[in-house]
Amino acid sequence: QMYLLESGPGLVKPSQTLSLTCTVSGGSITDSHYAWNWIRLVPGKGLEWMGFITSDDNTQYRPSLKSRIFISKNTTKNQFSLQLTTVTPEDTAVYYCQATGGLEYWGQGTQVTVSS
After folding, report:
1. 90 burial class (0-12, 13-18, 19+ CB within 10 angstroms)?
2. 25 has pLDDT over 90
3. Beta strands 104-106 and 11-12, pairing class
4. 87 Cβ partners below 8 Å, 6+ apart?
5. How many CB atoms lie within 10 A of CB 67?
6. Which of 31, 45, 30, 20 is nearest to 107 (CA)?
7. Distance between CA 75 and CA 97 in Å, rounded?
8. Average pLDDT over residues 3-21
């Protein structure tokens, strides 16, 4: 059983960078069977896939976010991270990290509000 836990600030000011970290336990981010995703639940829009990183550092991003998003991983800490630059109130959402392979594992989600 794999567990994922998101962490990071719950409030970010407009134009700043949103940074979240997902800590993985019960599994390894070097496992090539999984892609390590960030997904958000946007009010009124539903779930939105943002991007992923693989064990060999390949990344794919949602085209609409490509100019603002960066996903990285830290194998020493067994973590992967999300950075989203130049945020606006439209980036307010519950952010989830997820591992997808043969099975799916989700973090509990963390609310991020963009407001001055």
Report:
1. exposed
2. yes
3. unpaired
4. 12, 14, 15, 16, 17, 18, 114
5. 9
6. 20
7. 16
8. 98
Specify whether the backbone of 27 is left (phi greater than 0), alpha (psi in -120 to 50) or beta: beta
Mean pLDDT across 68-78: 97
Q: Do 56 and 36 touch, CB atoms closer than 8 A?
A: no
Tell me the CA end-to-end span of the chain in Å, nearest whole number: 39
Q: Hey, which bits of 8-103 come out as E strands?
A: 11-12, 18-25, 35-42, 46-54, 59-61, 69-74, 79-84, 93-100
Contact present, 79 and 73 (Cβ < 8 Å): yes
Nearest to 96 by CA among 19, 43, 41: 41
- Determine the residue type at 74: N
Residue 112's identity, in one-letter code, is V
CB distance 24 to 4 below 8 Å? yes
